[in-house]
Amino acid sequence: MNDVILAQYNEVALKLGHRSMFVGRLLQNVRASLKGLPTASVRSRSGRLVVELGSAAEEEVLRRLRVQPGLANLIPARRCRPEVEDIERTAAELIRTWRPPGSFRVDVRRADKNFPVKSPELAARIGAMAGEVTGAPVDLKSAPSVLRVIISREEAWVATSDRIEGAGGLPASTAGRVLLLLSGGIDSPVAGLRMLRRGCRLDAIHFHSAPFLDRTSQEKARRLAAVLARGQTSVRLSLIAFGEMQSEIVRTAPQPLRVVLYRRMMMRIASEVARVDFCSALVTGESLGQVASQTLANMAVIESAAGLPVLRPLVGMEKLEITRYARRNDTYRISVVPDQDCCTLFVPRHPATGARLGEVEAAERSISMDSMVEKALAERIRERIHPEWELDGRSAAAEL
Ligand code: ATP
Ligand code: MG
Fold it and tell me: What pTM, to 2 d.p., does this model score?
């Protein structure tokens, strides 16, 4: 039985900045992600985090750690004293139930170089013992199964379980706060996940067309935010009623420009929300050429309405790649639930693919932009969305 999970982080990533700040933040994120579970403790030990399982189920702890940005890999292990006899006794216990499917090797790492036995010698001793009990052959070069021994000054760990790949990247909330424009589609949640893995802290904003359309898009935005929140404690979600603004645009602007005008309106409102909520950039799920509105010309015109940098982490990605990422990270199943997206409302048959700024600005002159932005901010609904594993069937939303 394992009693700890060793959560290893990416050394290279940490060299980017202040190591102790990164590790401190990672520790905080990991503790927050395990909230509600009867895990005993999380501590930092010689370049890794050690999660003491306590009476929590290993599977549940792994499920939560696997999505933590900044963790490179996870090793379920058994803890013992950093002494040869105790390490060998612990290895012997684990080997009793270990059945490597093919060949195996023993990998010994000493963080404490004063340890009295050299790594190859200890590996050979444990390897001989494991060979005898399991009957499996040793292959030092390419064995699929590895028995790991890691020795630090304060404690040692022995592991026969496979190493599990983590989310990688940088710990969440180490690179600043950004505001994600979150639709109910496939792309924007993936854009959020990508920025989360680059260390950003995410807020989200969703535009909906209630009462013109039903509330499914809002519920989807909440559920998607609850998946994004797995990596960062919670997500602040702003909900903006957009229907009235859309109908004003429809009333006053030429048909082909509608989509670009909707988007520019979203940029203005999002920029203002970002400003009052201290976000340093906007994030969208736009990908070059994916749909008519996402040409270079349109992107430029849309971006010029934003008051701060617009990050588009998917701009060079194929739809297939994006979809694969969405499936792997559990947002796809929510994104494909049919909904009435605000952008399907009053969409022209032939949207402009090469909008010109002059033309767009002329169309906007008859729209009362400032008062729309003001109204949107005054009426926005703010919610704090918690990670979906804390919900147990409760609604994702809690009033902020
Ligand atoms: P997605 O799959 O993210 O909806 P999409 O391929 O449907 O993207 P568009 O509809 O052109 O593309 O939207 C481009 C981007 O604009 C989205 O990725 C998202 O960031 C933002 N966006 C679109 N609709 C909304 C909305 N209702 N609320 C918030 N942001 C939105
Ligand atoms: Mg969409």
Answer: 0.90
